[in-house]
Design brief:
- Helix 2 crosses helix 3, helix 3 packs parallel to helix 4 and helix 4 packs parallel to helix 5.
- A hairpin with a 2-residue loop joins strand 7 and strand 8.
- The radius of gyration is 20 Å and the shape is globular.
- It is of the alpha/beta class.
- It has one domain: Undecaprenyl pyrophosphate synthetase (3-Layer(aba) Sandwich).
Length: 259
């Protein structure tokens, strides 16, 4: 017996859940989804666990979200992992986050490679420990040929800092202040090949961007989830995708065409 039929037998009609609805038309699936993964600390606190336990649970949620994105047909996924402001957190938490990223690379890169995921890290790498910087570069090289999904990990990242760095890079390349254009800035962002996010998701019930992809998200659709990041699952991801699919996007008043 199929699962839909099983629920019909149990309750008389299919359960009201995104998994039981018709698939999202491919043309309405966002090409690029960006996520502010918020709520790890609160998740741990509510369970009387150390904060690093919340971050570990968050890495498991990320692993499942990558799989959900692949199944949905999303082609780019950007996640906010460590902001430039996070250096102000307790030293033991910062050290734990650095170690956790190294562990994640060691344990997950081969599986991501098998899934066709290309890894790309965006942010200011020069402030990171040399060993971690080496691992970032190695994982990027290992997955460079993959095309199913690009996973951008924003680590030691800040949106304002990215804009400053892009302007500095453009000026250093010989662009004069008088000739500085939006195109010149965009060409010098951390990942100039990145598509602008179609959808930005923030978890944990907070309603702000927190210095995330400020340049790139000028016309992104926003979705705010009440779930703490470690509890974020495929059902909630689907709700976000369906909310996006139901909207008519506008760019400065111009409505995006829908098939």
């Amino acid at each position: 017996m199929g699962i839909v039929a099983w629920f019909r037998d149990l309750r008389g009609s299919p359960r009201e859940d995104p998994f039981f609805e018709a698939p999202i038309p491919p043309e309405r699936v966002p090409f690029h989804v960006a996520i502010i993964m918020d709520g790890n600390g609160r998740w741990a606190s509510r369970r009387h666990l150390p904060v690093i336990a919340g971050h570990r649970a968050g890495t498991r949620a990320l692993k499942e979200t990558v799989k959900s994105a692949l199944r949905a047909g999303v082609r780019q996924l950007t996640v906010y992992s460590f902001s430039t402001e996070n250096w102000n957190r307790p030293p033991e938490e910062v050290d734990g986050l650095m170690s956790l990223l190294e562990e994640m690379i060691d344990s997950e890169v081969d599986e991501l490679h098998e899934q066709g995921v290309r890894l790309s890290f965006i942010g200011r790498r020069e402030a990171l420990p040399p060993g971690l910087r080496a691992k970032l570069a190695e994982s990027e090289a290992h997955t460079a040929g993959n095309e199913a999904l690009v996973l951008y990990v924003a680590f030691n990242y800040g949106g304002r800092g990215e804009i400053v760095d892009a302007v500095r890079a453009a000026l250093a390349a010989g662009v004069s202040p008088a000739e500085l254009t939006e195109a010149a800035v965009a060409a010098n962002l951390y990942a100039p090949e990145m598509a602008e996010p179609d959808l930005v998701i923030r978890t944990s019930g907070e309603y702000r961007l927190s210095n995330f992809l400020l340049w790139e998200s000028a016309y992104s659709e926003l979705y705010f989830s009440e779930q703490l990041w470690p509890d974020f699952d495929e059902a909630e991801f689907q709700r976000a995708l369906r909310a996006y699919a139901s909207r008519d996007r506008r760019f400065g008043g111009r409505q995006e065409g829908r098939a």
